[in-house]
Design a protein that fits this description.
By secondary structure, this protein is α/β, with parallel strands linked by helices. It is built from ten helices and eight strands. It has two domains: 193 residues, Metal-dependent hydrolases (TIM Barrel), CATH 3.20.20.140; 66 residues, Orthogonal Bundle (DNA polymerase, domain 1). Bound molecules: adenosine monophosphate, zinc ion (ZN) and fe (iii) ion (2 copies).
């Protein structure tokens, strides 16, 4: 039984490898199908589809959209989207514009703290893609201010850290609605980000399902077996689809590999058919 990986980032957002190289790693890892889920951008999908056609890997069009959840964030994955949908495109363009409003303010704060870097240096890493804090982290690493992306986040970029600047984020219901508009299936990413009790997470998923949520990311690189079981149980009780992926970013998260996460991730291929069936009913 082969494995799949439904959560991957590329250079079109804050991953460090282009889609073609991510597909190459997927082939080496024995991945039969994958989804490219860049933050707020779908522009890497055609390159991935083309590479997938050469390598015999099925490529599912995907997205990851951050949404506001109190002081924290919920990330919404979307699968089998009509990625050329014009309403989705304009929503994503607005999200990227909100990044461009925030990023220079982060740089200003870093400059005030005595660190020497410019937004131009950050943009040079990304080209026309979706720019995020991990790119700023990479410039800080390259200049020797921090040793790792984790250190950059802990000291400067994470919520509550010295150079943190919030960004305009949609409500979870809006992110879900935008994915539905493009006939995609919305899935709650890495549910461990929800700092709630087990009952609290269940209640949240119940509410999100009423707003259009279709699934939950049960299998994930950093999930402990007990968490995987907890999320499976939520999916079963709420009749949500089960998905999974590595959240590969390349250098930004150097301990995570395509297809296998930290070594023991295995997202079963059999999860794909129910997801496809759900997508067929809305197309
Ligand atoms: P942004 O999209 O600019 O808000 O940046 C958030 C992204 O940064 C997340 O989606 C992760 O990919 C990444 N990230 C968040 N926290 C960390 C961390 N502690 N270390 C490395 N990357 C992180
Ligand atoms: Zn990311
Ligand atoms: Fe995420
Ligand atoms: Fe992600």
């Amino acid at each position: 039984m082969s494995r799949i990986d439904l959560h991957l980032h590329t250079t079109y957002s804050d991953g460090s490898l282009p889609p073609t190289e991510v597909l190459g790693l997927a082939q080496k890892a024995g991945v039969s199908a994958l989804a490219i889920t860049d933050h707020d951008i779908v522009d890497g999908i055609p390159e991935a589809i083309e590479a997938g056609a050469h390598l015999g890997i099925e490529v599912i069009p995907g997205i990851e959209i951050s949404s506001r959840y109190g002081e924290s964030e919920l990330h919404m994955l979307g699968y089998f989207l009509d990625w050329q949908d014009s309403e989705l495109s304009s929503r994503l363009a607005e999200l990227r514009a909100s990044r461009h409003r925030r990023n220079p303010r982060i740089i200003e704060k870093l400059n005030e703290l005595g660190l020497d870097l410019t937004y131009e240096e950050v943009k040079a890493l990304v080209g026309t893609g979706s720019i995020g804090r991990p790119h700023i982290a990479r410039v800080l690493m390259a200049k020797g201010y921090v040793r790792s992306a984790k250190e950059a986040f802990d000291r400067y970029l994470a919520e509550g850290a010295a150079a943190y600047v919030p960004r305009d984020l949609p409500e979870p219901a809006e992110a879900i609605a935008w994915i539905r508009t493009a006939r995609g299936i919305p899935v709650l990413a890495h549910p461990t980000w929800v700092k709630e009790s087990a009952e609290g997470l269940f209640a949240l998923c119940d509410k999100l399902k009423a707003e259009g949520l279709g699934g939950i990311e049960v299998h994930y690189s950093t999930h402990k077996p007990q968490q995987t079981s907890q999320f499976l149980e939520i999916a079963r009780r709420l009749d949500l689809l089960v998905t999974g992926g590595s959240d590969f970013h390349g250098l930004t998260k150097p301990d995570i590999e395509v297809g296998v996460g930290r070594g023991n991730l295995k997202v079963p291929e059999k999860l794909l058919e129910p997801l496809k069936k759900a997508a067929r009913t809305v197309h």
